């Protein structure tokens, strides 16, 4: 990371914020490796709050230049026009991803909008805010496919796919995730959108120990699989993903669809396609969803992979 590259960062930030919709959006994605010297820097616009994330340590000179750049940025007329209130710097490379306020006062539980749907975030306490912005097109796709369908959302986290499915007219959604706190946030996300919670189930279970309970609410017309790349003691992508895929035939309705996702730069689309052929050959690869343009990457296989099977 190079302090001398920061003027490029702030110039790009200005141009992106100027054209940003009144929704949550990534403004700068250095991890796509398109900006030399800024490869471990990202910036998200949360409708009035700017979250800058560092993914590797930087020297004091870089931090000083970043702070001074933030001061100049927040003095622009554009910042006032867009309702800018706070700039948060998150050190993602440290345990607990500690954060510090560089400008203004932090609203740590903001409600933001994506594709017209509302989600509550959690800032400054956890590594992730509660909504993965690179999955926007995936949620949009689910919303467009969900009419009158029974949907299973595995590794549901805060239930973004579930919110999109109900908004798209799904009859029922079953969310499965080990973290009760994440599912509680998911329940709140549904409430924020005025959804009927009688259509939504929240199962705080280990997926691999709960196939019987999951199967009871099936068969499913649409299954979403969006696991973490690694979760100590519970999930290792390269080993455990196949254990999920081999269960699909007994869970999926006739003509059912699967959205299978992976966001590890170490795992390619071919891994998912070949694993599906091995474990559930009845399912055929249809297409890979595009990623939002703001997440452009020099190597598309290093970015999010969201694949549709039928």
From TrEMBL:
**InterPro entries from the UniProt entry:** SAM-dep_methyl-trfase, SAM-dependent_MTases_sf
* CDD domains in the record: AdoMet_MTases
Recorded hits in Pfam families, A to Z, give: Methyltrans_SAM
This entry's Enzyme Commission designation comes to: 2.1.1.-
Q: What class of enzyme is it?
A: transferase
Domain (S-adenosylmethionine-dependent methyltransferase) ranges: 25-310
Identify the keywords attached in UniProt to this record, alphabetized: Methyltransferase, rRNA processing, S-adenosyl-L-methionine, Transferase
**Gene3D superfamilies named in the record:** Vaccinia Virus protein VP39 (3.40.50.150)
* GO molecular function ontology, one term from the record: methyltransferase activity
Gene Ontology BP annotations: methylation
What is the name of this protein? Class I SAM-dependent methyltransferase
- Which organism does this sequence originate in? Vibrio olivae
């Amino acid at each position: 990371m190079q302090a001398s590259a920061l003027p490029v960062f702030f110039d790009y930030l200005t141009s992106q914020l100027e054209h940003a919709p009144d929704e949550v959006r990534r403004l700068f994605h250095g991890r796509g490796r398109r900006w030399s010297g800024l490869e471990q820097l990202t910036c998200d616009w949360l409708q009035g709050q700017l979250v800058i994330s560092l993914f590797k340590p930087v020297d004091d000179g870089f931090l000083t230049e970043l702070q001074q750049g933030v001061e100049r940025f927040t003095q622009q007329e554009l910042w006032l026009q867009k309702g800018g209130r706070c700039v948060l710097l998150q050190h993602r490379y440290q345990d607990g991803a500690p954060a510090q306020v560089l400008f203004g006062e932090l609203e740590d539980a903001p409600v933001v909008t994506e594709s017209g749907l509302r989600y509550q975030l959690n800032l400054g306490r956890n590594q992730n805010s509660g909504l993965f912005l690179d999955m926007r097109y995936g949620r949009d796709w689910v919303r467009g496919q969900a009419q009158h369908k029974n949907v299973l959302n595995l590794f549901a986290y805060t239930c973004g796919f579930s919110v999109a499915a109900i908004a798209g007219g799904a009859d029922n959604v079953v969310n499965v995730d080990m973290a009760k706190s994440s599912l509680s946030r998911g329940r709140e996300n549904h409430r924020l959108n005025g959804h009927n919670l009688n259509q939504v189930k929240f199962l705080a279970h280990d997926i691999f120990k709960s196939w019987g309970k999951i199967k009871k609410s099936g068969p499913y017309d649409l299954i979403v699989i969006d696991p973490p790349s690694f979760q100590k003691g519970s999930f290792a992508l390269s080993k455990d993903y196949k254990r999920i895929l081999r269960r699909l035939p007994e869970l999926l309705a006739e003509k059912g669809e699967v959205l299978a996702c992976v966001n590890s730069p170490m795992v390619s689309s071919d891994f998912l396609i070949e694993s599906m052929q091995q474990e559930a050959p009845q399912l055929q690869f249809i297409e890979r969803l595009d990623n939002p343009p703001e997440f452009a990457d020099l190597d598309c296989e290093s970015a999010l992979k969201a694949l549709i099977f039928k």
